[in-house]
Amino acid sequence: MNWGTTILLTFLLLVAGIPWHLPDALAPERKGAYLSRLTVLFERTTAFFRRRFGVKPHLSAAVVEVASRLNAGADSTSAWVKTLPRHGFACPKTASTADLQVAIEPYLTTWEQASLTGLLAALRFSEAVGAPLSEVLTGCADSLTEASRAARARKLALTAPKASATILGLLPLGGIALGAVLGANPLRAIFSGGLGTISALLGLIALCGGMLWMFRLVARAEKA
């Protein structure tokens, strides 16, 4: 196998594998005039590494612990500040809904936004009518747990389509590798400038288009 075959195989492997190793879709960052494109890119990059190598956030468990701390006599700010970092979220400055949203939102995926929206609405309701916060959070915990289970089940159900698309994307790579092993030199046909080159380009376009289409369908299903 010569160097040209190695380069082509590496390129096809990257094309076939990259879309399915992208992070789950993240919650949209709050856009303001003061945020530059570089800042947004940096936040997305750090969020990706936090999600891949950091502690997996568990909002429902955090809410249950906050309710337990409140029942034990802790104040609201202390309960949130001590609880959220233990469950993979940032440490909020205060217990206000704005600070809690900033601390929680970057760690959630798009299909978990309904859970955060419901939690913030419950907190605002508690502040408006004076309802006991611990009881409100206890009521939210069950719905958050069900939403988390639904998200995990949806992600598990989409594992098979992702794996199938990845395998199909690797088939051209396997064909080129097999041809090189058998001594057919498929690169010569691909780069000959004739019908072989046209067929290879059309096949590559079809492969990339099909994988992007499948990835879009999967992302749309994850957001449903």
Structural notes for this entry:
- The protein folds into two domains: 3-22 and 159-223, no CATH class; 55-157.
- The model is unreliable at 19-27 (pLDDT under 50).
- The protein is elongated.
- It has helices at 3-17, 37-53, 59-71, 76-83, 97-104, 113-129, 133-157, 159-181, 186-190, 195-223.
- With 224 residues, it is mainly alpha-helical.
- The two termini are 46 Å apart.
What features would you highlight for this structure?
224 residues, mainly alpha, 2 domains, 71% helix, 0% strand, elongated
Secondary-structure map with pairings?
Layout: H1 3-17, H2 37-53, H3 59-71, H4 76-83, H5 97-104, H6 113-129, H7 133-157, H8 159-181, H9 186-190, H10 195-223
Helix pairs in contact: 1-8, 3-4, 3-7, 5-6, 6-7, 8-10
Number of beta strands: 0
Are there runs of 5+ residues with pLDDT below 50, and where?
A: 19-27
* Average pLDDT level: 76
Described by the principal axes of the CA atoms, the overall outline is elongated
The topology string of helices and strands comes to HHHHHHHHHH
Annotation field: number of helices: 10
Which secondary-structure class do the elements indicate?
mainly alpha
Task: Give the amount of beta strand, in percent.
Answer: under 5%
Helix content bin: over 70%
